[in-house]
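Hello again, I could really use a second opinion on something today. My current little project is about how a certain protein chain folds up. You're getting the sequence in one-letter code plus the fold written as tokens. Here's the protein in full, and shout if anything looks odd to you:
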Amino acid sequence: MRFPLLVILLFFSFLVSCNPKFTGNSTGAMYYSPGNGNILAEDSSVLKEIIPYQVKMNVAMSETLAWSLKPIEKGQPESRLGNLVSDLCFEAANRKYVAADNHGIDFCVLNNGGLRSSLPEGAITRKNVFELMPFENELVVLTLPGKVVGKVLQYISQKGGVPVSNLRMKLSNSELAHVYIGGSPFEITNEYKILTSDYLANGGDGMDMLKENLKSELINCKVRDAIIESLIARNRNNEKINPETDGRIQ
């Protein structure tokens, strides 16, 4: 028989919070059917066990997290979606991250490839966020010397813009200029802490320079969970989601 594996995986993924209580190794599953391509008959006893979980999962996935005043889509050099997601992650990380050196997170960098769908106008549900961010990527804080941050900025420029938060820069013929981090001009002699995903921190999407970090710190929160948490926080404050392109990358 063919089990609704996605249903089970989504349900258990929902149960895992920003502070997971357990870890495990992913496993693969293969399905076989007897000759002539016949599919095994459904086992009603197994379905009886699965259906209650499926119902709970459907209810959880239908939960409205926040309300948007407009459709939210990605693009370049910046976009409503990229700005929103990076801001939401930055907000969540700043609530969780406690720096031993009292140096907080300076800015956030993500990638457009990790954003797999848009968000709708009106109700934003938990399902919408799972569709937007189906990966199990974790948020990580990297301490970088200014020279490596310069490489990150060049990467953003060469990409034509990526989702960022607390960073403003202008591009001219794919060359960077007028870079401000947290409202202050970028200084190549400074050290900076950037928030990103573990996928990018490990060199994903061509960001090998991030492996040149001085320190890497997990904050025990998935990217998806940070988005969900921050949407709920905004909704609790009766704040409608109304992201704009604000010139952070021009």
About this structure: The chain has a mean pLDDT of 85. The chain is about 35% helix and 20% strand. The beta strands are 64-68, 107-109, 122-125, 138-145, 164-165, 167-172, 175-181, 184-185, 191-197, 215-222.
